[in-house]
Amino acid sequence: MIEISNLTVQFGGVKPINDLTVTLNSRISGLIGPNGAGKTTLLNVFSGFVTPVRGSVAVNGQMLTGVAPHLRANLGLRRTFQTDQIADDLTLFENVLAVADHAGLSSHDAEQDVKAAIEYVGLSKRLNRRGSDLSTEERHLAEIAKALIGRPILVMLDEPGAGMSESESQHLERVIRGIPDYCGAQVFLIDHDVELIAACCDETMVLDFGKLLALGPTHEVLQDAEVQKAYLGGFEELGVAA
Amino acid sequence: MNSLLPFLVVGISVGSVYALSGVGLVVLYRASGVVNFAYGALGGLAAMVCWQLIDLEYADWLGWVVGIGVATLLSWGYGRFIAPSLTHQDRIVRAMATLGFALMIMGMAQWYWGDDPRRLVLPTDSGGLEVDGRRLISYTRLLALVLAAGMTASMLWLLAKTPLGLRMRALQSNRVLSGLLGVRVKNVDTWAWVIAGVFAGVTGLFMGNMVRLNPTVLTFLVIPAMAAAVVGRLVSLPLTVFGGLLIGVIESMTALIPEISRYGSSSAFVVAILAILWQQRSGIGLSRDNSHLE
Amino acid sequence: MYKKDKPDVVPGTPIQRVIPIWVTLGVIGLLGPLLFSSYWLNTMTSVACLSLAASTVALLYGQFGMVSLAQFALSGVGGWFCLRLIHGWGMPFEAALVLGGLIAALFGLAVGLPAMRMRGLYLALLTLMVAAAFQVVVNVIGFPDGGTGWAGKVINGQRALIERPWLATTDASYFRYTLVWLAAGMGWIEWLRCTKSGRSWALIRKSEAAAIAGGVSVLRYKAWAFAVGGFLAGLAGGLIAGLNGQLDNTGFPVSQSILLFALVVVGGAYNWVGSLFAGLLIRALPALLNDHGVDGNLSNVFFGFALLVSLIQGRKGLAGQLADFYKYVRTSRIVEGSVTWGAIAIVLGLIFEALGWGSFAGTFFIALIAILFRMVIPGVCWLLLGFFGKRFQDGVEDGEAWLSLRLARGMQAMGWVPDHRLLKRTLNWLFIGCFVGWIAWGVFDVPFEIALAIIWLAMALKVGFEILAYPYVLPLRKRLDERFPKPLASYR
What we know:
The structure holds 3 protein chains of 3 kinds. Helices cover about 35% and strands about 25% of the residues of chain A. Chain A contains 8 helices and 10 strands. In chain A, strand 9 and strand 10 (about 210-215) form a beta hairpin. Chain A is globular, with a radius of gyration of 18 Å. Chain B has a two-stranded antiparallel ribbon with strand order 1-2. The model of chain B is unreliable at about 285-294 (pLDDT under 50). Chain B has a single domain (about 5-120, about 135-280), classed as ABC transporter involved in vitamin B12 uptake, BtuC. In chain B, a hairpin with a 2-residue loop joins strand 1 and strand 2. In chain B, helix 1 (about 5-30) crosses helix 10 (about 220-230), helix 2 (about 40-55) runs parallel beside helix 4 (about 90-115) and helix 10 crosses helix 11. By secondary structure, chain C is mainly alpha-helical. The model of chain C has no long low-confidence stretch (mean pLDDT about 80).
């Protein structure tokens, strides 16, 4: 469960997040909003890179304020980044193992965990390929594999589908939808791709310049008139099934 | 106080040469993002060429002009032909490349002229400002002070009031965007290197006169110059001048305290270290574009 | 889509990555004293110490992109404390060496910790200032040489030297002793690189934010790298102290620190061989030039040029480019080559010894050098040509192939049917013979004709063996190909 209480973030004169209070409880929750609406900033608050001026965030009752950024992974927090962060000169296996190194597992368990995660996202064939030789899709999937290591409680995905083709997106959908079953973690998905959100997320929240615009079951939110006006600009044109 | 005065004077005059070097470095860094390790080497070459011409009985002014000209020419050449191949790499790499350039120049100069003790004599050495019958400051040092002030002021004016200065500031702010907006990046860059070359030549002549006329020594005088630039956070001309003067004065004043007088030549470095630590004292935070930590 | 032709990489266990280092250094250690004159032996010991220092520069630059220009100054610190501990407390050499290293590690941390948060450029400037300050300080207080007072400096009177460790009193044994430390240090770094530390470092290098999100404490791992770098640099300083029994006030100038970094970039910061190149370049090259009456300053010109070129071409350095060149060579060929050539070198050595033309060791070594050159020269030439651009490189390669083909065709027309590849190899060997002969004459004082004879004989033996034994060799070759099918590159 994700609890955001009265969260306010301020950079100079700008408030990317303005008094936000939200509780997200479903298996997979989504976040959409126009560029600059504060989506990545919200993730950065969770990761500890940004300190809010007011308010707090908590995951499964555990308050995150004051916890050092690199220790949040120990608490079960995992995230991916918009630009992939795969080390070029390590193999895929080593890249994911690098995360497992810090998950407090024995070396044998770590290896098993890594192989299982890589197999889950469908990259077993690329186990020993160097990071620089992986394709974009493979890198994004590798990022997700890194996020499934250990015993995650919350997996936050920041635009995991950027630059993917149709078939790749469908594979991604399957991967994301299966995460709660794979490792028991709650998923928080941020993306521009409304189809992906609609396919994966049970509930969705909409941020509009720091403020909550809508929250609820995905199909309801996507059909909300306010949301359509602010963000989607006419639902019918997108052709997404309700 | 009277006994302090000579030290102060020497300190300010050496400091003004440091300041001048620092300004040259900063102008180039602002426009092109390159910390120029070859600055001292170019200055050293200018000094050696000048000395050589004077030694061959040419007119003094010819020596100065050719010396400064050589430094400017090499600096322009580097900026025009070598620096462009590196623009896509990060700042460290581009700075290291100038180091390579410095090694080449220093090696050639040291090989050609060797370690024989020499002196670069400027005509202003022989006269000076007198107070109560005692020489307060030689004309050379006075000239250094005046030039430091003058050249810095002209740089400030250039950056603030001229179209070229505007383009330089645009480049510093965002290189890629400036290029897209139509600023002729290569052109502006080249001008920055030319200016740096002139500064290097002038400061080289002064250093050759005031410190020592030796290619290797002059090459490594770039380090105190960088110390001054560091005080100015690599971007502020007035602060750089202040830094240079501060370093010069501290260096000179250490002679008064017997315990630390032998460490005097490390003043520049200590000042720079303290400046860096002070400037970087805030903790890790997210960069402005949210893309990385700094 | 993904590049189909890139091989998968079998990372290899840490031991597999460390063994090549030990084997190479072991061979050098065994053969070096047999062939180097006393002067060159000491030079090479120096080279080993500098390679150790260089490997710490490479560690910080290759793993983090952090430019530390203070590593050689840290060597000075380590050397200072090593001398002080021996003179002041009579510690055994090894203990003082290690303690000196630990203290240097502390200094390294002191410099590195504030620098953790800095962008690369500021770190470079900070370390530059530290190295410059160190030069001044050490010039004033000097290195300990048996005196009293906290600095341990003798004012008037005889300066004391420290003694070499009891295991390693002669030049030859000290050379091997240093190589043991070098192997241990470089082995340690390589081992760290392929385990948890190296993986965490790689994550940090790619993105600090991602590393933190993955649970890596950036502070701790950067500090660790600085500590390792400082420790090994300090060790290097102590080893230099042991070589001469003392250290000179002017022995650790900031110019050496800068040059060390420059040559690490030239040699290659991403590969342990690069550190060896750096050590050779900074110490052996000027000595070699001096031997032949060339001014040492010109080596600076060369270094500057090499640095420029390395940076423009992508920073992998000599070692990296050589690795690239040989990346796709099949392992089976290397195994086969090593076995046959090793056998030929041994045979030649025995023959020459029996006939009294030269010692077994010397002949063996020269043959080995020649083989090494045969394998390396194409790569090195390719590298040097690369200074002039890729098109030039390709052009010369095409030209060489065209020339040998034409020559072969011409000879065919005259009634003799050589394989054009055989011809190309013969030409290569003629050239290599002269080149290695010149080096053997210059460095090892071997008569030019003898060296030439060895090399050409070796070539003749190899060719003769291939021609005569071809039918027997072919099935063996097939078996080797099956056993080691992958290119060398895939065994990282």
